[in-house]
Structures are given as C-alpha cells and as structure tokens.
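Hi C.,

You asked whether I'd gotten around to modeling the 317-residue construct. I have! Everything is below, sequence then structure, no commentary in between.
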Amino acid sequence: MGQPDMGASTSAIIDVRGLTKTYETGFAALKGIDLQIRRGEIFALLGPNGAGKTTLISVICGIVSPTTGTVSADGHDIRTDFRHARSIIGLVPQELTTDAFETVWATVSFSRGLFGKRANPAHIETVLRQLSLWDKKDSKIMTLSGGMKRRVLIAKALSHEPSILFLDEPTAGVDVQLRQDMWNVVRALRDSGVTIILTTHYIEEAEEMADRIGVISKGEIILVEEKAELMRKLGRKQLRLALTHPIAALPESLADFALERSADGGELVYTYDTKGPRTGITTLLGALADAGITFRDLSTHQSSLEDIFVSLVKEAT
C-alpha cells in the first residue's frame, strides 16, 4: 500500500504531521494525518462524503483548530504564524455563498482587501479575464448562473495572489462542459506556478487533473500515490461466474488464474486488468471447460472508488 511520500517533504509547500481533530462530541474527524504536498503540483484528495476532506482543508487553511499535530504552509506554521501562512493560501469553498447584491468586481476587490493587500485593479482584471468573467465584472452576483458564481469564488480566492489554492469539490453540481472549462482554468493556474489541492469524489476529475492522488477514508489518509499507479488499480474488473453445480475446491489446473471461490462454492470471481494487453478471459473459459466446470450465468463488475476504499481499508487494518 502506498504511504505519504516523506522523502518529498524537503520540497513540500504544505507539510502536515500528526494531525488529529476530535470534536467535543467525541467524534474523531481526522486521525493522525501525515501529508506533504509538493510545490507546483496538482494534488487530488479523493474520498466519499464524510471522509474528512473538508475538515482537513479547513484545518490547513486555519478555519478549524486541530486537536494535535502541526501544519505549515511554505514554512509558516498555520497556528503560530497564522497571518503569513493564510496570506499565501486561497480557498474555494464547496458552498456557493457570496455577496448576492455586490458586483463581481466589488466582491473580488473586497476579498483582496481582507488580506491587507493594496488595491491592484490590474491583477483583478487579469484574474477575471482568466476566468472568463471580465464581461460580467459589473453584474450583480445574484444574476449569475451557478457555474459563473463558482468562477467568482475562484476569483475571490485568487484576489490576494496566493501561491497555494484549495478547491473543495470544485465541479460539484456543474455540467460537463463547465467542468472541462474549470479543468482548463486549474491547469493554467498550475502552469503559472500555483500549487493546487482539490477534493473530489469524481474519479474522472482526479484522473484528468492530478499529478498525485491521496485517498482519505474515515479521517485517515490510507494511500498517497502517483496518479498512474492508482489508475492501474482502478482499471481492475471482475468477472463473476455463477456455476451450474457448486464445487468444493478449485482444481489444480486453475491454480494460475487467481480465482476466488465463494463460501458455498457456487460462484467463481476472476479479477483482471482492463488496461493490460490481455484479459485472460478466453484462456480461463477454456480451462474451465477442460476441467468440466460449467456456469449458468456470468457478469462483469468494474472496480469503483468505493471498492478501492474497502480493499485499502482492509489492508490498513
């Protein structure tokens, strides 16, 4: 199982060590998180709802206080040097909350002022143009579509020129075309030198965008890997064979296929790689026929992110 890349900590722009968060109710939202984000990468944090993604981001951004552990942003401790640490972080929250009666220009400019930055109309213009919001600069937020409102949230997060940008479920509830546009914006930001951390539960979003992927489940980081390696795991598929007659054991002739037999012997499960040159299914079916094993039904099952979580959690315990 992959572990956080401790060797990358020297070039880490975000360094999280021993982080826990337990609420007064006793609920442990984060459990011993160690995570290093490399400078200039796009890092995707994958996890189901309730896994701790938003809590982790909130702690790193100084919005929620950790119970134990340390967090530093570009060498600045988020607790002891909060102002400096927070000044280099931009956060795009999941919720579409913004100043409905303000104009786009006013709300983005105001966000810059909140960080004590001097007015810089040229920078605000650059950000709005980059996000295709320039023609909406005098529009009130309330008149914009959901997709445009989400762009405004990104503009607000970029108003103070952060070197780190957090995107919490950036494409939740947006259409496919807008999602593609958002991905292009994120890539352009990364190319300009911004380190980007996004949370998502869309596998394709991580696959499309990320350099590395972390998987969080029940408050624990259970895997951090290069994207290609995780996608290889996500490429696994299962062939389920419902047998005509249950078998008590697998014959020796099928030993090389790494088949799993159900407890009652009525089903065989064969796992294969969809991205490999051969699946081995044809060979398997021939071997089953040679062994005199017949089946009445077969089905395939694509590994989902949930399946990966389950298998990783089993490995972790």
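If it helps when you're writing up: The chain has a mean pLDDT of 87.

Thanks,
B.
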